[in-house]
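explain this:
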Amino acid sequence: MIPIVENLLEIWRRLSRASGDRFRRAAATWRFGSVMPLGPESEIARMLAALTAKWHRARPRQPLFVSSTTADELIAGLKNRRFDVVLLDLETFPTEFEGRLISRTPLALAGHPSLFAKHGDDIAGLLQANPIAVPSLKSGLRQQAAHFIEATLTEQERNRLTLTEVDSIPVILNLVMDHGYLSVLPESSAARVRNAPAMRRLGPGYMQSLSLAWQKNALSRQVAETMLAMMLAEQMPNIAVALD
């Protein structure tokens, strides 16, 4: 019996050591949620890459998990503690959280150059004549696009629009460049995309706002401020231009 019991104890020690390591890693991991980047050239993608690289150098014993989804899902994840800090494409967020506005970037109507050449300054005609690719209503970008469409078209004209919901910015970009779709995108980020679409700025009232939000406690505030410093260290000149 003794060798059997000793063997069982050794098996249990191996199992508990592995599970203990996983538990300690999970407990030490900070979970960062972000809205989906436009592409590798976008400000969001650059900020997330800077944060990931600097975090792992500065805090090797505290893993960082980064995930991208829609604004509504990020807020829900912050409420249920699935995320510790989130980057939203919204200027305002629930008052139960603390946060800070990072940047405001002009939005533009994007499409193939031939579409703008065909319709000229007739934006209403352009919107009605071509399908429009937008994220779902859970996205702050979609909310801005909806405001623009409501301000540009009558209710009867809006009812005739062809709207396609796609919660993937790279797919939207391909629809715009290769399939005759229009979309509303951040002007500065879309301009950096290879084979960038033609763009018409929507106006001063239409902006993509990026805000960092976190739980109302001292530890979350300290970690969020550290993350913010890492994200913006190399981005401040570009963000200053966006704010202008």
In short: Residues 2-28 form the longest helix (27 residues). The chain has a mean pLDDT of 86.
